[in-house]
Specification:
By secondary structure, chain A is α/β, with parallel strands linked by helices. Chain A has helices at 43-55, 69-75, 92-107, 125-140, 188-197, 211-221, 223-236, 241-248, 257-267, 286-293, 355-364, and strands at residues 8-14, 60-65, 84-87, 112-115, 121-122, 144-149, 160-167, 177-183, 200-203, 207-210, 271-276, 280-281, 301-304, 309-313, 317-321, 326-330, 335-339, 343-348. In chain A, helix 3 (92-107) crosses helix 9. At the A-B interface, strand 14, strand 16, strand 17, strand 18 and helix 11 of A face strand 14, strand 16, strand 17, strand 18 and helix 11 of B.
């Protein structure tokens, strides 16, 4: 195994609930705390284990909500106190990643940070790490760098990265391209065209950059937000942290890093992408979870849940069994059944994206007890 | 209201579990103990209430399994001890109805008995009672009489009674026909032909006859079974009942009354039918329960269960909520969801008849705890 990268620090923003995976994912049991692969460990822990050989386990920072602190530390017994950044309320990814980058830059001015979602699934950890090494080389050269997954099908559930055809010349990196633009989730025809074209990659939400470069990008688009982040970072390792957090955090603008960094940097030619040939999935809904669990086989019933008691006849799709009940399916195809002690979801793969709507409806109807 | 019929005794065989309604119906909670109409009372109690104005509540005999005695008596607080016949093990309808008839004949030689399933739904109790009065008149005239429901659609889930075109001349009855034959559940084309023909009626499993006439029919086809029934009946109201039951009951042949009485009597011209124009359903599976609950409306979601918490979007079919969980459905059509504390069923109306197969599979796989 290759050595850890000396100047590299990994950041894991562990924030989103994963509403499209309700009622499995909940406010108090967000997606990243679940074992969605049947591996026996949570997605968060798998993310950590994937990064530790690159960064060293003393150089992985987790940004999470105060409510999840205990659960996160239980998943990551090796995490150091100074590597846990707690959010008093969610402020989206610019604040989360920006604050981590700002804290780390004060501790270590030349640090290269890499931010990786806590709740994605990657099949080939070695392939992933090869791509990160290339991305770190590009980051050292001054690029805000992302890793774009080489598409294997015309997926409509992911955003895409349009890469420039010509490779950049970056020392220590095998293949790096400039990013022409980030594009939204396409329709099927467009996704097919992207697949044929070859210069479109799936956006896996990975950002690798020198901390100072990343912060400068935020400052270009959102100077007030950067000022707040820097004020927090300046106080972070001091006794005034609590008071400054209370004063500053509530006023931070809530905005995704895609809009503050990725898109503007791409438009200005400062964004690079490393093509990644490893299996990756954001497990965005139960349809993708079904596909992941069934290994892509059709007419197959995927089952997730320890000690699940399933009796299925002529049925396909996915059953998530988080109760101890016997579940019987007869003649239901592409079905999604998610069985938990206090809530049951029955839908189909085709309707998987609509699950978020249920969560919204539960919020407005005052049934937050099952969220 | 018309007076009770002096020579009439009602029999309610309360035996079958209703396996096609699993996991709602169970060995310890059979179909007849459930409220399937949302009326607030069990099907058994509704059957009793329908019959009491005809027979008087001291003249309704219930035949049920020993295990259900307490539940039956709780549903029917007015039932007299001498009107409860307990089976030590299920022996199908010839033994159940035959024993009741034999006991009643010894108590009252000229009695006319009427046997009515404990777990059917009838919308119009007055129409039902009018038909029973006609059937009792035909029974007094010596016929084994049934009530055949006038079909309202080409149903494939019921057996049919083929009535002779010409009416019989029976004193005190408005319309009685001879039965040409009983026919099995038809395919759809045949069912359509039956509906157009007009001389086919749904077999609702109702039998009205003089007790001695019914017993004579059993004796013609199954003399050994009748001998056992008579031996039991002779001992029934004596101190030797227990010993005789132990000696005789286990050896009784297990056979439906359709084969011992209805079909042979029809073939011999001794069977009559009264056409019934009232709403009737045997609620044989969740598809018919869905239809019953939704009033026949398509694209409607029927919900059964006190305090059900349902959140449905673009879904139709039926949800039976016997747990307190929130149930969310998205984009599932003609779905059947039956949610109980220890077992969950998800299927479709089209597959409703296959539910019995699950029960059979659970039996052989040793998961009898949920049966």
């Amino acid at each position: 195994m290759a050595d850890a990268l000396e100047d590299f620090y990994a950041i894991i923003p562990a924030g989103g609930i994963g509403s499209r995976l309700w009622p499995l994912s909940r406010a108090d049991a967000p997606k990243f705390l679940h074992d969605l692969t049947g591996s026996g460990t949570s997605l968060l822990r798998q993310t950590w284990d994937r990064l530790a050989p690159l960064a060293g386990d003393q150089r992985i920072m987790v940004v999470t909500g105060r409510a999840h602190r205990a659960a996160v530390e239980a998943q990551l017994p090796g995490v150091a106190d100074h590597n846990v950044v707690l959010e008093s309320e969610p402020k989206d990814s610019t604040a989360a990643i920006g604050l981590a980058a700002a804290i780390l830059r004060r501790r270590e001015p030349d640090v290269v940070i890499g931010s990786f979602a806590a709740d994605h699934v990657i099949g080939d950890a070695r392939g992933f790490r090869r791509s990160v090494r290339d991305a770190v080389a590009a980051a050292r050269a001054g690029y805000v760098t992302t890793i774009g997954i080489t598409p294997t099908e015309p997926a409509i559930g992911f955003g895409y990265i349009h890469a420039d055809g010509a490779a950049l010349d970056v020392e220590g990196a095998s293949t790096v391209h400039a990013v022409k633009s980030f594009v939204e989730k396409p329709d099927l025809d467009t996704a097919r065209r992207y697949l044929d074209d070859g210069s479109y990659l799936w956006n896996a939400g990975m950002f690798i950059a020198r901390a100072d470069v990343l912060l400068a990008e935020i400052g270009r688009t959102k100077p007030e937000l950067l000022a707040g982040i820097e004020e927090l970072a300046a106080a972070w390792d001091t006794s005034s942290r609590g008071a400054v957090v209370d004063a500053i955090w509530p006023g931070l603008e809530k905005i995704a890093i895609d809009y503050t960094v990725a898109e503007p940097a791409a438009a200005a030619g400062r964004m690079a992408v490393v093509p990644g040939d490893f299996d990756w999935d954001d497990v965005g809904d139960f349809a993708s979870l079904a596909k992941l669990q069934s290994g892509g086989r059709a007419n197959n019933l995927a089952v997730l849940g320890d000690g699940a008691r399933i009796l299925a006849d002529s049925s396909s799709g996915i059953v998530v069994a988080h109760s101890q009940r016997l579940i019987s399916l007869i003649g239901v195809e592409d079905i999604v059944v998610v069985d938990t002690p206090d809530a049951l979801l029955v839908t189909t793969s085709a309707n998987a994206q609509r699950v978020k709507g249920v969560v919204d409806a539960l919020k407005v109807s005052g049934r937050g007890d099952v969220l």
